[in-house]
Amino acid sequence: MFSAEHIHPMVVHFPIALIISGYLAEVTHLFIKKEPVLKEFHFWLLAAGSLSAFAAYFSGAFLTSTVPPEATAVYSRHELFAELTVFTTLVNTALMLYLKLEKKDETRLKWLAFALNTITVILLFITGHNGGVLVYDYLLK
Asked: Where exactly are the structural domains of the chain?
């Protein structure tokens, strides 16, 4: 039977796919091919990834059951890195929106956005790793 606890495992894949795909589009645009569609693609994937990261965080924070006592350290790390991921992706989306609206997306500020996006992807991997450890080492036993 479906319960609210099932929402987080279903939603969490969207920010992973969207943010990483957006990052790959950005890397391709910056370093391989200066294709304007890749820049647009990156922006919209990042925006959708930000919204889905926000949804994934709140579905995990409010709709999952309590974790076993021996998993609290892993759960705390997972939650901390999830918060950092959501924060950096929202800040980066706001920065990208500002650059886009002010037509400054081809200035040096694009490198700040790229650095923030790189940090976001690293945080996303750490969050996912801790989530996987939490599920496979503690919750599915």
From this structure: 4-139
